[in-house]
Amino acid sequence: MGTSDIVLVAGATGGVGRRVVDILRKKGIPVRVLVRNEEKARRMLGSDVDLVIGDITKDSTLIPEYFKGVKKVINAASVIVGPKEGDTPDRAKYSQGIKFFEPEIKGDSPEKVEYIGMRNLIKAVKDNLGLRREKLLFGFEGNNYRQLPWGALDDVVMGGVSESTFQIDPSGGENGGPTGIFKGVVSTANNGGFTSIRTKNFSEPENLSAYDGLEFRLKGDGRRYKIIVRTSSDWDALGYTAGFDTEKGKWQSIRVPFSSLRPVFRARTVSDAPPFDPSIVVSLQLMFSKFEYDGKLNETFVEGPFELPVSSIHAYIIKDPITPRFVHVSSAGVTRPERPGLDLSKQPPAVRLNKELDYILTFKLKGEDLLRESGIPYVIVRPCALTEEPAGADLIFDQGDNITVL
């Protein structure tokens, strides 16, 4: 994780959440907390904590600006359970873990917090965290197809005579499947010398901040091409540009790291341009040109017809293995209410009282499933009952949902 990457902690004023925040800050890891009550959070976590106010149960409060720079999430938010007879302000009865008090749900329901809240939080952070797999921007991937509105942008805009187009060939792909083809005829007549295809501006900017670059699956022709990525919706704005070489007659994967993109306007480097911001990608452009940058020429340039099959464009993640980007604190017992033949007398209170507690474990499991299905690299932690005691005791770990502490 880069030094500027932020860990978002939801549920930061709870017993687990505030400890997580404290540990992260002591390690020098940038932390941002998502809380409902600013005064309470400042009192617990300190006046200098990076804090945003929102409620995961209310989608409208999770403003996109809150999550800028966030690369990982720890979700310790949970429905509140407490004794029916009431508790002390510091929840001493609930946390002592020895005497049993008849419990009830306090505040929002399990469905609202554990399921709807998880859905809202995933939606808010998903673009920042990235997917386990690469993100398809254009092309064919199994049964998936994503089209982009490509259009020609050739040197005719400067008086030249070159021309190009982008077509879909239903059988020209790597294994006889479909592919896109960037093709045309390039000429230096009338001071020309380039062809390109450019997408229309996306209806919504693509947030690729969780990724490391673009990967093209294409069949090379031995020429050098350019990719131009724009972060401005203005038509005649500068583009962040990189060149890439291809091998003739070979299907290959070409990776263009975002770090290799340079700000260019009309083939000239713009030295005072802002750094490339992958969170606001608004259009893509492929170009074949006799010009490189700053007066240099493309050594592979040849006038005449050309053809570049492109079957897909992905945003890729370079880190391998991909570590979890969303840590969710759930609960032991979430799978047990649905187990046939379960002896409830041997189960902890949350399992025995699942129905009475508005199906708390059922909705916790539904929330887990949302995370599993999201495509975000994740880990789910299912602690047994947590009590307020000094740290340092031995911990028991297992996979699945089998540990029981009565």
From TrEMBL:
This is NADH:ubiquinone oxidoreductase intermediate-associated protein 30 domain-containing protein. InterPro entries: Galactose-bd-like_sf, NAD(P)-bd_dom, NAD(P)-bd_dom_sf, NADH-UbQ_OxRdtase-assoc_prot30. Residues 147-310 form the NADH:ubiquinone oxidoreductase intermediate-associated protein domain. It comes from Glycine max. Residues 11-126, 324-401 form the NAD(P)-binding domain.
